[in-house]
Amino acid sequence: MAPHKNDESPASTTAPAAATPKGSKLMNRSFKVEPELVVSAKGIHLHLADGRTIIDGCGGAAVTCIGHGNEEVIEAMYEQSKKVSYVHTQSYVTSSAQELADFLLEGNPYGLEKAFFVGSGSEAVESAMKLAKQHFYELGETQRVHFVSRRQAYHGNSMGSMSITSHLLRKRPYNDYGHQHVSHVTPAFAYRYMKDGETESQFSQRLVQELEDEFLRVGPEKVIAFVAETIGGALPGCVAPPAGYFQGVRRVCDKYGILLIMDEIMCGTGRSGTFFAFEPEGASPDIMTVAKGLGGGYATIAAVLATGKALEPIRRGSSAFNSGHTYQAHPLACAAALAVQKIIRRDGLVERCAKMGLLLEQKLRAQLAECRSVGDIRGRGLFWAVEFVKDAQTKETFDPSLGYGTRVQQAAFQMGVALYPGWTTVDGVRGDHVLFAPPFTVTEEELDTIVDVAKRAILSQEAQFL
């Protein structure tokens, strides 16, 4: 990932000069600084217009699960384009869409029966919310209008998905828009929210009780769903839930007939070392979303996966999901995702991700042990984050205006490794981290380089600010 240049970042003005042409008509994320121009990419490497080669240590945004430039995927897209490049799903379907759905949901894993393919994670979350609402509409429970989600959660950029998101900076210009029937509970974020003297089990129990209390405060008969990232992604930085948490959440949702939507846009499709990130949690969703690792960056694709329980009222009622997109189940996107998923399964890449993730954890903990600004190292599979603190004992954060995590990311980029920066980690205002999410195909030698560069980048900033 190139140096971050979103104006939300307090250190965005420190980005280096870019190689892209001046005066481009393309609207980039920042109006201040042009992003780096990538001229080619292969495997884990990005080749820039200025001649530099960057190791993609974060998979863009935890996207490139099999690396860049895979010829099998490119060939699959080419072959699909020769047959049919587009049809409208109101009247037509293609084999690539059918085969992808059948491949993903073979045997109805965890009760998941149907896949609805869209173009982005935000569209998937939006569609999941609509599907959950229609579930109760078909049951005649039209009073159910409320969603509960967690603070420090990111669910998307569309108005509906942003409504349940708690990314304060991204929401700030749009606070008067979006769905108004939303409330948030404490994140399952032990490093920051577990109390002194509290055990992991007690923390889980407290969070589950808070969720039930929130259902009761709103009125459980008014609540559609609880929406949660299985593993907190870019906003808090790879936060896995405490043991027993989702089992308790599942129990409380079932008690009041409330749906559970699990968002695995970033952490799913193998990224956390199991195909579904919820697999180690002992509980499964009624509806879930996946995206980034689904197509591996070769095409814009995301999916809503739904259980028979979620779909049954619609089957018995109107018999149609009241939603749709022009590019829904796009043939080329589905062909690309199918090729990616076949490679992952054939080559055992989910298992490899788990194995290499253990190596990454070991290397991060060993190499960063002497870094005074490293407060927490957390994650699962090839999905890891390092949270920075000014004081490791008190967990005091750096001044947000410093942009410490972004500075670390930019220093690493200048040394040839792309990491994913995060800020407002703790509460929407304070906190910094960087995220590691290399392709599942990463080698141990490449992991060594990524971790070594990260260490040198951190030490370079500690020399200035500690």
Automatic annotation (TrEMBL):
<dbReference type="InterPro" id="IPR049704">
    <property type="entry name" value="Aminotrans_3_PPA_site"/>
</dbReference>
<keyword id="KW-0663">Pyridoxal phosphate</keyword>
<dbReference type="GO" id="GO:0008483">
    <property type="term" value="F:transaminase activity"/>
</dbReference>
<dbReference type="InterPro" id="IPR015424">
    <property type="entry name" value="PyrdxlP-dep_Trfase"/>
</dbReference>
<dbReference type="Pfam" id="PF00202">
    <property type="entry name" value="Aminotran_3"/>
</dbReference>
<dbReference type="InterPro" id="IPR005814">
    <property type="entry name" value="Aminotrans_3"/>
</dbReference>
<dbReference type="InterPro" id="IPR015421">
    <property type="entry name" value="PyrdxlP-dep_Trfase_major"/>
</dbReference>
<dbReference type="GO" id="GO:0030170">
    <property type="term" value="F:pyridoxal phosphate binding"/>
</dbReference>
<feature type="compositionally biased region" description="Low complexity">
    <location>
        <begin position="9"/>
        <end position="21"/>
    </location>
</feature>
<dbReference type="InterPro" id="IPR015422">
    <property type="entry name" value="PyrdxlP-dep_Trfase_small"/>
</dbReference>
<dbReference type="GO" id="GO:0005829">
    <property type="term" value="C:cytosol"/>
</dbReference>
<comment type="similarity">
    <text>Belongs to the class-III pyridoxal-phosphate-dependent aminotransferase family.</text>
</comment>
<protein>
    <recommendedName>
        <fullName>Aminotransferase</fullName>
    </recommendedName>
</protein>
<feature type="region of interest" description="Disordered">
    <location>
        <begin position="1"/>
        <end position="23"/>
    </location>
</feature>
